[in-house]
């Protein structure tokens, strides 16, 4: 019985690995009949966890810094809703990298990449126009809620994100006047269902 179970587990892992490699290949390969026909299925498998990009080989240097903050709202019986102060998610990520003996940029990159994907799919509008845009909106919201649960536990009904974008001075421009304008964007309130509700 153990041999049969082990054999089935190995066969399942092997089949899943083959399917995964095939779907990733179809995602990164030039457009063809198969990838066009199964685009929805391929994108469902690839996004957001297995997304491929080539920045490792041709990095795009950052020209701006972004400070992403979140606040919560909780209704109070017979009164105005209580809105929390802003909680700086970017500062938490930066502190985790700076204060670690073995730093990992996983969380920092997760938040930054989630915002970049949200921006690519929504532009200046905060209305999702596709399934993928809605998925990235939920992904960004879930990152914020997860970070809040770790650092500011409590009950709330909705979250709002604020993104402050500041330009980075170009190399070799020390001493020259630098752009000091910051662009602040407030995202809409997103409802949250916390565990145990």
UniProtKB/TrEMBL annotation:
Pfam families documented for this protein: DUF5819
Superkingdom to which the source organism belongs: Bacteria
Keyword Membrane on entry: yes
Chain ranges passing through the membrane: 6-29
InterPro entries, A to Z: DUF5819
UniProt keyword terms in alphabetical order: Membrane, Transmembrane, Transmembrane helix
Protein name, entry field: Uncharacterized protein
